[in-house]
Amino acid sequence: MNTPWEILVVDDEEITRESMAAWLREDGYAVMTAASGREALEKTQNREFAIYFVDLKMPKGLDGIETMMEIKKSYQNASIVIITAYATVDTAITAMKEGALEYIVKPCNPQEISLLVGRIIKVKNLERENVLLRQQLSGRYRFQDIISKNPRMQEIFTLIRDVSSLRSTVLIQGASGTGKELVARAVHFSGDRADKPFVAVSCAALAETLLESELFGHEKGSFTGAVSQKQGKFELADGGTIFLDEIGDISPKLQLDLLRVLQERSFYRVGGSEEIRVDVRVIAATHVDLGEAVRQGSFREDLYYRLNVINIRIPALRERLEDVPLLARGFIERLSHELGKDVREISEGALKRLMEYPWPGNVRELENAVERAIVTCKEHVLTESDFRFLDTPASGQNEWFIPPGLTLEELERRTIIATLDRTNGNIKEAAAQLGIDRSTLYDRIKRHGIPR
Amino acid sequence: MNALCLLPLGTAEEAVLEMLDRALSSRFELRVRRLNAVALPPGSFDPVRRQYEATHILHAVRAAAPDKGVTVLGVTREDLFIPMLTFVLGQAQLRGSVAVMSTARLSQQFYGLEENTGLLLQRALKEAIHELGHTFGLTHCPDRQCVMTLSNTVQQIDEKGEEYCESCNLLLTDARHLLL
Hints:
The structure holds 2 protein chains of 2 kinds.
Chain A: E1 6-10, H1 14-26, E2 30-34, H2 37-43, E3 51-55, H3 64-74, E4 80-84, H4 89-97, E5 102-105, H5 110-140, E6 142-143, E7 146-147, H6 151-163, E8 170-173, H7 180-189, E9 198-202, H8 208-216, H9 233-236, E10 241-245, H10 252-264, E11 266-268, E12 275-277, E13 281-286, H11 290-296, H12 301-307, E14 310-313, H13 323-339, E15 345-346, H14 348-356, H15 362-376, E16 381-382, H16 408-422, H17 427-434, H18 438-448
Parallel strand pairs in A: 1-2, 1-3, 3-4, 4-5, 8-13, 8-14, 9-10, 10-13, 15-16
Antiparallel strand pairs in A: 6-7, 11-12
Helix pairs in contact in A: 2-3, 10-12, 13-15, 16-17, 17-18
Chain B: E1 3-8, H1 14-28, E2 32-34, E3 45-46, E4 51-53, H2 54-63, E5 70-76, E6 80-81, E7 90-92, E8 98-102, H3 117-135, H4 154-159, H5 166-179
Parallel strand pairs in B: 1-2, 1-5, 4-6, 5-8
Antiparallel strand pairs in B: 3-4, 7-8
Helix pairs in contact in B: 1-3
């Protein structure tokens, strides 16, 4: 049962406000009154009204427009009707410009007020219904932080629930930007390890030696720069879950080390001699076809079978386009709040455009596109024109503009940064795209001081 | 409602009063008492608008009520208003004991047409039942046929029925049980 709509009548004349309140109560509304702008603000402090009738001329303290502006500070979408006995074009324009929904001259025909109130309440009811529907939808189509109505994803949600409390290793496969980490988190946070650590490691982001130390820790002095003992991610994840992202990128040596950890559930820190036992659930993810990598000899078959006990294959976004509107709306809600912009909706035309785009970067690319659209949007609704940038090719720097005074060093720095952005920090891919080897790339990253 | 009193305010049509006496007594199955006429409070008259302010009049009606637990319906042929609106056909205390109705705009003569007493009486009865409905706690009903539907014009009054709809009746029954 919905709470009944409340109306606030603000007028310094008692007869005016009390008789109006009585008339509105006959219509079934709960009505409160305020004799001044100040009193109105007190009444609206922790209470939002469906409609505010505010008299323009209130001699003491805040006048009608000032009262309205104060109310709008707390309730941006407040439906405020300014009432005045003195009709001037100027005050009408001011009232509307400052955000009044309507401006009426008293006395007005009862039919006019009835229709106005009815119209506003109808919109309020629709808005309320809309919010409820969205909440229901997001409840029905949301699992942990993953939103989808796609049947395959719904099956994945079921699978996640089924395996969340098992110790078995999970291998998540899917293209870049499909939400592999979200799925890994969903597995962890749905299970009995939810209150234990979830430790994520990007296996592509670090050089082999650094990755080894990152995973297993190191003893003091075990290599140049190892100034003290360090616990690795496996130790930090003890009792919980370790998420190994881009597992397809690890070196043969690390594949062997990892295999041992999975078999023995123990390891040695780099340079260490003490065996460290841990109880860690391993979830791995990759965009690479590991089966094919095994066939080609770049990935160990025994490790593959150890990892691939439970396989979750996330479809690309273009295979579940019905999720685009849900995801887009979810991003709008979160991002407009984060960016401090009042963007509330997305037009049918814009959604159609989004549904036609192939999304090679998947959900992450959609999120970035929505963020970009929100930043440049001038209205409250995202329209097709806000997504015009999708019409240019995805690798999209059509504007190959070389600013004057750009040094070779700066050009190299920007190129490396842009390539790393494009490959989501994947060193191996970035090096391949730049036509250099990995160690050269690491070297350049260090030289240019490019942050991870 | 234990008892109902009709209070003529200023000049009220005798035909309307007699009809209300009979019809309301039959409808609500109780005795209707006619009180002595009282003048409309001078402070309620607005000389610019040439209308009487309804809330002031409600106070006067309450003051004229003989006992507690008695519902008083004031009837006048003067045109009524509240400051926010150009006119009101009546006003009532929601879940209270007083109501007032005006026949000014129920008459065909108000619209420059030939008087039609039958129509006037029909409209007056509907308005009386409507305002009394408010004293029972009923608010406006979305059912256009129900006597509790909001009607601001005589066309709307003519379109609606004299009866409370099923939902309003149910609410009325609940209210009566609470009162007993």
